[in-house]
């Protein structure tokens, strides 16, 4: 094994899975600026993780949607907006069809009123 390629600055660090409410203390070289007061009363560096054994479906046996970047929320928002646009267009089409029907009905009602021009009587000699 090559010497001097492995880190030497191991220290106690707390890893916390906020989603599952699970944390554990171990040794690591992970760098962080946050700290936490641990159960033993000492303060340790804190590394927040998105998934741990307490929240991963393989270890829990449950199927969960773990969305760290908001992809599911963005998809749901786009889907809802598309549905709203579809309903809006359907309402607009209904209104236009109703307006067209009213115009046609009004035109039919006007037609008998506009009678054909009267024929002039032929002058007799």
Give the helix/strand layout.
Blueprint: E1 11-17, E2 22-28, E3 35-37, E4 43-49, H1 57-60, H2 71-113
Parallel strand pairs: 1-4
Antiparallel strand pairs: 1-2, 3-4
What is this entry, summarized?
It is built from two helices and four strands. It is an alpha+beta fold and 125 residues long. The chain folds into two domains: 9-65, no CATH class; 67-110.
Span from first to last CA?
Answer: 134 Å
What is the general shape?
rod-shaped
The share of residues in helices is 25-40%
* Count of the domains: 2
How are the strands of the largest sheet arranged?
2-1-4-3
Total beta strands? 4
Structural class: alpha+beta
Oligomer: single chain
What's the overall average pLDDT, rounded?
A: 83
In percent, how much strand structure appears in the residues? Answer: 15-25%
Low-confidence parts: none
Query: Measured on Cα atoms, how large is the radius of gyration?
Result: 38 Å
Described by strand count, sense and barrel closure, the largest sheet is: 4 strands, mixed
Number of helices: 2
**Elements, N to C (H/E):** EEEEHH
């Amino acid at each position: 094994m090559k010497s001097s390629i492995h880190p030497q600055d191991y220290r106690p660090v707390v890893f916390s899975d906020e989603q599952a409410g699970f944390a554990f203390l171990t040794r690591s070289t992970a760098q962080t600026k946050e700290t936490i007061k641990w159960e033993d009363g000492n303060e340790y560096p804190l590394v927040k993780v998105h998934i741990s054994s307490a929240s991963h479906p393989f270890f829990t046996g449950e199927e969960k949607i773990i969305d760290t970047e908001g992809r599911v929320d963005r998809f749901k928002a786009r889907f809802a907006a598309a549905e709203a646009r579809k309903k809006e267009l359907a309402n607009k089409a209904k209104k236009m069809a109703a307006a067209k029907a009213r115009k046609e009905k009004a035109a039919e009602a006007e037609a008998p009123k506009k009678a054909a021009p009267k024929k002039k009587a032929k002058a007799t000699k």
